[in-house]
Write a structure and sequence with these properties.
Elements: E1 2-6, E2 14-15, H1 17-26, E3 29-30, E4 35-36, E5 40-45, E6 48-53, E7 59-65, E8 71-77, E9 82-88, E10 100-107, E11 113-120, E12 129-134, H2 137-145, E13 148-153, E14 156-162, H3 166-183
Antiparallel strand pairs: 1-2, 1-11, 3-4, 5-6, 6-7, 7-8, 8-9, 9-12, 10-11, 10-13, 11-12, 13-14
C-alpha cells in the first residue's frame, strides 16, 4: 500500500498498490525536470512552473528544481480524484524502480508524515523518482503554509528544501484544474491557450542517501 500517515496518529488515506501503479505508469516524465513530454505550459508562479499533463486526464501540477538537483513535482490526478508527488535527484542513484521506500516528510515544525513511496522510472537510465499519492489534503495544506520541507530516509535527513511561493503555486494548480475541467476533455492540447517558459529554484547539494553501506 502507498500511504500518508502523520506521526501524531491522525487518520491517513491509503490507496491500493494496483491503483497506484496504474497511475504511475501513465505519467510520462523527462529526467531531470519531472516534466511531462506532452505537457501544456499553464503559467509560472514565482519559482514554480504550472503545467497540464494530458496523460493523467489533463491533471494540473507544479514543479520546481533546487540548486542541489532535487526536483519536486506535486499535482492533481482528476481521474483518481487525488494528489500525487514525485521527488528525485540524480545523486540518489541507488533508488530502484518498483521498490518500496519508507520516507518521512516534515513541513517546518509540524508533526512529520510517514510516507510509503515507490521508486518510479520511466525509461532505462533515467532518474528514479520517489512517487506517492493520497487523498489526505492536510498534507497539501501544510505544504502551502510551510517555509521548509525536510525529507528523511532511515532517520537521516536527505534534503531540506526551502519552500517559496508554495501556497500560490498550489492555488494555481487548483485554479488550472477548475478551468481545464470547465473547458472539457482534450482542451489542454490547444497550443494557443497558453504559452511561455519555466523557471527553477535554488538550494544545496546532497549525496546519495539510498546507497548501501
Amino acid at each position: 500500500m502507498l500511504s500518508f500517515t502523520q506521526n501524531d496518529d491522525r487518520e491517513a488515506a491509503m490507496l491500493g498498490a494496483q491503483t497506484a501503479f496504474a497511475v504511475a505508469t501513465a505519467l510520462t516524465l523527462v529526467a531531470p525536470m519531472a516534466q511531462a513530454e506532452d505537457a501544456t505550459f499553464w503559467k509560472n508562479v514565482g519559482d514554480w512552473e504550472i503545467s497540464i499533463d494530458p496523460t493523467i486526464s489533463d491533471g494540473c501540477y507544479a514543479v520546481a528544481t533546487w540548486n542541489g538537483g532535487t526536483v519536486l513535482r506535486i499535482g492533481r490526478n482528476p481521474q483518481e480524484d487525488n494528489f500525487y508527488f514525485l521527488i528525485g535527484n540524480d545523486k540518489w542513484a541507488s533508488l530502484q524502480p518498483d521498490e518500496p521506500y519508507d520516507i518521512e516528510i516534515q513541513f517546518g515544525s509540524r508533526a512529520p508524515w510517514d510516507v510509503s513511496a515507490n521508486g518510479l522510472q520511466f525509461n532505462p537510465g533515467e532518474t528514479v523518482y520517489l512517487h506517492a499519492q493520497s487523498t489526505k489534503m492536510d498534507f497539501i495544506r501544510e505544504f502551502q503554509r510551510a517555509l521548509s520541507m525536510k525529507i528523511s530516509y532511515n532517520d537521516n535527513e536527505i534534503d531540506n528544501l526551502k519552500l517559496t511561493g508554495s501556497r500560490r503555486a498550489w492555488d494555481e494548480v487548483e485554479n488550472c484544474q477548475r478551468q481545464v475541467a470547465a473547458r472539457g476533455p482534450g482542451s489542454a492540447s490547444d497550443p494557443f491557450a497558453t504559452g511561455g517558459s519555466g523557471s527553477g529554484k535554488s538550494k544545496r547539494a546532497t549525496d546519495d542517501p539510498f546507497a548501501s553501506n
